[in-house]
Amino acid sequence: MKKSLIVLIALICVQTAAFADDTANIKIRINGAIHDNRYFLCLPNVGCLSILAAEKGKVYPVFHPIQMSGIFVTDVSSGYQLSPQGLPSSCDVTVDTNKTITISGSITTTKNNGVRVNQLHCSVS
Questions:
Q1: In this structure, is residue 4 part of a structural domain?
Q2: Quick one: what percent of the chain has pLDDT higher than 90?
Q3: What are the backbone dihedrals phi and psi of residue 88, each rounded to the nearest 5 degrees, phi first?
Q4: How far is CA 37 from CA 24, 57, 73, in A?
Q5: Is the pLDDT of residue 29 over 70?
Q6: Does residue 15 sit within a domain?
Q7: Is a pLDDT exceeding 60 seen at residue 93?
Q8: Are strands 100-109 and 24-31 parallel, antiparallel or unpaired?
Q9: Full domain range(s) for residue 42
Q10: How many domains does the chain have?
Q11: Does 14 fall in a domain?
């Protein structure tokens, strides 16, 4: 029984490692997120990702290539209003599996409870 459990755990670890190679990863390095999980970066065909969790080291795996076509930022304390933001040329990319995109900048608020990322920059590795 004990050997079967060890073999099962080993198989799960190997399978998890195989999935890791089939993901595109998203790292977020956006400054200015206060310490109450209220700011989220939203990407089409991916979803909304916590900036605070990313600040604490969370890397978001996505199981398909990511076509960066725009981003939205939201402050959930202001009624979940999505603020669209255009992309600089560094972010106008496709992120294939086995690659990681790092999205960086700093959060600022705008008039009418909007929020945006200043100095938005992306790099793919």
A1: no
A2: 52
A3: -75, 165
A4: 24, 14, 13
A5: yes
A6: no
A7: yes
A8: parallel
A9: 24-124
A10: 1
A11: no
Better-predicted residue by pLDDT, 43 or 110:
43
Over residues 101-111, the pLDDT tens digits come to 999 999 988 77
Contact between 99 and 63 under an 8 Å Cβ cutoff? The reply is no
Does 71 fall in a domain? yes
Q: What CA–CA distances, in Å, run from 61 to 11, 65, 81, 107?
A: 21, 10, 25, 23
What end-to-end distance do the CA atoms of the chain give, in Å? 43
DSSP sequence for 5-42: HHHHHHHHHHHHHHHHHT-EEEEEEEET--SSS-EEEE
Of 16, 41, 98, 29, nearest to 64 by C-alpha is: 98
Sign of torsion, CA 36 48 116 57? Answer: positive
Average pLDDT over residues 32-43: 84
CA distances in angstroms from 60 to 3, 88, 99, 102, listed in the order given: 33, 21, 12, 11
Tens digit of pLDDT for each residue in 59-70?
Answer: 999 999 999 989
125 within 8 A of 52, measured Cβ to Cβ: no
Between 82 and 24, residue with greater pLDDT:
24
Instruction: Name the token pair of 9.
Output: 């755990």
- pLDDT score, position 21: 66
